[in-house]
Amino acid sequence: MSFTAVTAGSRLKASPQDWGALRDFVHERTGVYYNDACLGLLVSRLEPRLKSPDARGAQDLLLRLTYDTSGSEMVPLFDLAAPHESSFLREPEALEALTTEILPAFRERGTARIWSAGCAAGEEPYSILYQAGSAVELHGIRLEVLGTDLSPQCIAQARRGEYREASLRNIPAERREEILDGSPPMYRVRPRWMEGARFESRNLIEAAPGPENAFDVIFCRNVLIYFSDGARRKVVEMFHETLADDGYLILGHSESLHGLTRAFKPVTFRRGLGYRKD
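User: That's the sequence. What structure does it adopt?
Assistant: C-alpha cells below.
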C-alpha cells in the first residue's frame, strides 16, 4: 500500500505530507523510523493526539513540536509513537547466559553494572535481578541494574513495579509468586527485586546514562529493530563507548550487528549469541 493510500485512510485533516513530516520528526528526535509499510501504525498511534481538544491539525502540532523547549508537546507524542512491548523472562536464553556464563567472571570484582536500554515498563530489569539471583548468592556479586526508556509513563510504572497479566505470560506458574505479590488484575514486584533496580527516562540517541566504561553488560533487546540504519549505528557506537573493556552487549533474537560495526566480536553462549567489546 502506498504512503498516500495509508494516510488517506485517516479520519483527520492531515495530508500525506503532514504525516511524512511527523514521521521524520519522530525519527530525528528518537531514532524510531516507520517505513511506508508501517506508516499506518504511526497514523493510528498519533491520531489520539491530533483528536485532542487543543489540537488544531498536523501542521499546528509540527510547529509546536519544533519550538517546544519544555517537552510538554514532545514527551506525550513520543509516548504514543515509540513501541513499549515487553514481558517478564522474555527470551530466557539471554538471561541464562548472563547468569551462568557472564556474571561468574565478576566474582573477584564483586560488582556488575548492567544497563537495560529500552526497558519499557521495567519487566527486563526485574527479570535480570530475579534470574541472576542464584549467581549473586553463589559468587557474592552485587548487581547494579539501570533501566531506561523514552517513555516517562513507562518509567513511572517501572518504579511502582505494578503489572497486569499480559506482562506475566512467560513466567511459569510455579515461579510467579517468587517474583510478584498480588492477584488478578494487578501484581507487584516483590521488594527484594525492586531494591536492586533504578530507572530513568532517557532518549537513546541523545546521550548515554553514564560516562565511558560505565557498564559491564548492556541489554538492548528488540529495540534497534525499530530504528533506521543511521540511528542504529549511532546508538551502537554509544554502547561501545559506555561499555567497560570486554563488556557485553546483548541484543534480541532477531537483531544483529552485521553491517553496522566491527567494534564488537560475536560471542557464542551455550544457548544464544551475544557481543563483546573489542
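The two ends are 43 Å apart (CA to CA).
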